[in-house]
Design a protein that fits this description.
By secondary structure, the chain is α/β, with parallel strands linked by helices. The chain contains 7 helices and 16 strands.
Length: about 250
């Protein structure tokens, strides 16, 4: 099949940036349609050519590639091997009618292996696995902080909340705080997959450590490690919706 033009589509709000590759146009269109209607997906690009896919990957920032296995010229497994050599490789989900390639796929650290015909609920699970993998990787990240000429590495997973201090950000853990020369907006973007959310122009919190959400006279606040943090009116509804979706036992949004 000849290469068709890439098909971009934008979703609502932040989410995954996806590239779909399948040489069979009906399968490509169906998978693209399903992903466009997943509210966890922000952006979908699609192509029926592995060669065109490589060109797009040089131009686009992509979080995950949904990839057919059997394609002319360059197979999905071969393309995944190329992706693995990227400095920041995207996650890979194989989508195929053939079960026999599963072992090769997981040797390449594929996040998931979805069989055709693709069911909507199965694709929903694949997207969930991609996001869970991204969160796990973000949680394992460590942040270098300096104090008294000594550099320490603080795991992101231990950070409860972050306060803006001018051009700096103060990271709060259970028993300490650290000053980092990075603006809060940058941390908000970098750590969104690790469960961090903005609640105020000067506050970023990890939803994993929210013990309570309080409403008093139309004002909202959250409690983390016994400290009450105010939520701006602008961010109240977004935070409440997020906590309802990700509610933990014992936490009442």
């Amino acid at each position: 099949m000849s290469s068709g033009p890439p098909t971009p589509a934008s979703g609502q709000g932040p989410g995954l940036r996806v590239l779909v590759i399948d040489d069979e146009r009906p399968a490509l269109d169906e998978l693209t349609f399903l992903l466009e209607h997943d509210d966890r997906v922000a952006e979908v690009h699609a192509t029926d050519s592995p060669t065109e896919a490589l060109r797009l990957l040089q131009q686009l920032e992509v979080d995950v590639v949904f990839l057919d296995v059997q394609m002319p010229g360059l197979t999905g497994v071969e393309l995944a091997q190329v992706l693995a050599r990227f400095r920041t490789p995207p996650a890979v989900v194989f989508v195929t009618a053939h079960e026999q390639h599963a072992v090769d796929a997981f040797k390449l650290n594929a996040v998931d292996y979805v069989l055709k015909p693709v069911r909507a609920e199965r694709l929903t699970e694949a997207v969930r696995r991609v996001l869970a993998t991204a969160r796990a990787e973000s949680a394992q990240e460590q942040v270098p902080v300096e104090r008294g000429g000594v550099t320490r590495f603080v795991p992101v997973s231990q950070i409860r909340y972050v306060e803006a201090e001018g051009d700096y950000a103060r990271l709060h853990t259970a028993d300490d705080s650290h000053l980092l020369r990075v603006p809060l907006t940058q941390l908000e973007q970098d750590w969104s997959d690790a469960g961090f959310v903005r609640i105020h122009r000067s506050l970023l919190i990890s939803t994993a450590f929210v013990d309570e959400v309080r409403f008093d006279g139309g004002r909202c606040s959250v409690v983390i490690d016994g400290r009450e943090l105010q939520v701006s009116r602008r961010h109240t509804r977004e935070l409440r919706d997020l906590l309802v979706r990700n509610a933990r036992p014992g936490v009442t949004p």
